[in-house]
Write a structure and sequence with these properties.
By secondary structure, the protein is an alpha+beta fold. It is built from 1 helix and 12 strands, in the order αββββββββββββ. It has a single domain (11-183), classed as minor pseudopilin epsh fold (3-Layer(bab) Sandwich). The protein has one helix spanning 9-60; strands at residues 64-69, 74-78, 90-94, 99-100, 110-113, 119-121, 124-125, 136-140, 150-156, 161-167, 174-179, 182-183. Strands 4, 7, 9, 10 and 11 form a 5-stranded antiparallel beta sheet that branches. Strands 3-2-1-8 form a 4-stranded antiparallel beta sheet. A 3-stranded antiparallel beta sheet has the order 6-5-12, with no helix packed on it.
Length: 186
């Protein structure tokens, strides 16, 4: 008998197919985690912007506004430079592709259940639930308290994961919750 030093063609094909199947599974899992990571980055940026606006309003003794544009899928907040607030001077933050308010993706009446079992509805609610075409506004008063409490739901449509940012009405405490929201119209 002679000693074999090389792979046969069928062995090579089997090895290549096993490697390709393994790599495709890793790529699929990686895409889902990248989408979740993008959502986390967007939510953390929003929370940081809310905290910064709240602290700036306290430090400068000025009321500062935070506006949420649901249909256009972005938010903007008032800034203050060098101790002076120029009215109408805003920073605009757009959400990346596949991430944003549920209404932007056609989910017309999103809701979630809060920690007390109460149902909270709407993509962004701060005491006003009128037309989706009118920006929702949250104002931080000079003492750092919000004009109203409420919530902001941000979703990743790619993997159906959502987070909710909750602003408490009296204290202005801002926190993040990961929720499964549902459409109340369905």
């Amino acid at each position: 008998m002679t000693k074999r030093n090389a792979f046969a063609l069928t062995e090579a094909i089997i090895m290549v197919s096993v490697v390709l199947i393994s790599v495709s599974g890793v790529v699929f899992i990686g895409r889902k985690s990248v989408s979740k990571s993008q959502l986390d980055v967007c939510v953390n940026t929003l929370v940081q912007d809310l905290h910064t606006t709240r602290m700036t309003s306290t430090a400068t003794h000025q009321d500062l506004k935070f506006k949420f544009f649901l249909v256009e899928n972005y938010y903007q907040f008032e800034i203050e430079e060098n101790g002076f607030n120029t009215p109408g001077q805003f920073v605009k933050r757009e959400f990346p592709n596949g991430i944003g308010y549920p209404i932007y993706f056609g989910i017309t009446n999103p809701a979630y259940t809060d920690e007390n079992g109460n149902i909270a509805a709407g993509s962004v609610e701060f005491g006003y639930s009128g037309s989706q075409f009118i920006p929702r506004t949250l104002c931080f008063k000079q003492a750092g308290t919000p004009s109203a409490g409420g919530h902001i739901i941000i979703t990743s449509i790619k993997n159906n994961v959502s987070s909710v940012v909750i602003v408490k009405p009296v204290t202005g405490r801002i926190r993040i919750g990961h929720v499964d929201f549902y459409n109340m119209d369905s």
